[in-house]
C-alpha cells in the first residue's frame, strides 16, 4: 500500500515538476559497536515543485549494498528510502519565515536490520535567512512506526509479532546552513523524536557539505547518525531486541540538475 501511494505521488509530481535532480554516488553504513561496515552505491531522484506560497520536495533513494551477513543471512542487498517535505508559507519578512510543514519519511529493508520505518508528521517552522547563514527550528507532531527485521532478533528469543512499534510522536528539528560563498555551503541538522510519555524514539544528526561546480552539477559529502531507543519494544524479560542501536552513514555523490 505504501509503495503504491509513493509511486502515485512520484508520477504526479514529476508531471508538474519545476526542478528535477538526479544524484548517484557511493556510501558506507557503519555499525561500530559490532565492527560492521557495509559498502554500496545509490541513486537518488529529487523533485521540487513551487507555486506561490507552497513548495514541495520529494526524494526517492534506491540503495545497493554488499550483503551484511553478520546480521541477516537472508538480507536482500537492495533497500529503499522515500521522503516528502511540503511547506506552506504563513508569514514572511525580508529575513524571517513562518511555515506550516508536512513531513513523510519512509525506509525499508536497510542494511542495519530495519525492516520498515515510517514517520508521518505535521507542524510549524520558523527560520532566519540571510546571504551568509540560515537558522531554523521545526516542530512536529504525528505518527511513528518502526519494525525490526526478524532474522537477527530471533537469536535473542524474540517473536515476529513483537518486532513492530507504532505510537503518536512529536519532534524538534533545529538546523543551520552556512553559505560560505555561491559555490560552497555546509548544512547541519539535528532531530529528536519522542512519544507523548516523553520517551526518546529516535535521534538523528546530519552534516552535509556541498560544492556547486556550476548551475547544473554539484558534489556533496554527507554524514548521518541515527540512534534508536530500543526500549520502545516490549522486552517480555528477554534480552534487548538488538545488541546495537546506532548506525552511521557516509555518502559521497554527484548531483545533476535538470
Structural key phrases:
12-stranded antiparallel beta barrel; Porin; globular; 1 helix; mainly beta; 258 residues
The unreliable regions are none
Give the count of helical stretches.
1
Q: Which strand-content bin applies to the residues?
A: over 45%
Q: Largest beta sheet: what is the strand line-up?
A: 1-2-3-4-5-6-7-8-9-10-11-12
Q: Which percent bin holds the helix content? A: under 10%
Which outline best applies? globular
Largest sheet: 12 strands, antiparallel, barrel
Quick one: CATH class of the domain at 48-211? Mainly Beta
Give a structural overview.
The radius of gyration is 19 Å and the shape is globular. Helices cover 5% and strands 64% of the residues. The longest helix has 14 residues, at 2-15. It has a domain at 48-211: Porin, CATH 2.40.160. The protein has one helix at 2-15, and strands at residues 19-31, 36-51, 54-65, 78-92, 96-108, 114-129, 133-148, 164-179, 184-195, 200-212, 217-228, 246-257. It has a 12-stranded antiparallel barrel with strand order 1-2-3-4-5-6-7-8-9-10-11-12.
Task: Tell me the layout of helices and strands.
Elements: H1 2-15, E1 19-31, E2 36-51, E3 54-65, E4 78-92, E5 96-108, E6 114-129, E7 133-148, E8 164-179, E9 184-195, E10 200-212, E11 217-228, E12 246-257
Antiparallel strand pairs: 1-2, 1-12, 2-3, 3-4, 4-5, 5-6, 6-7, 7-8, 8-9, 9-10, 10-11, 11-12
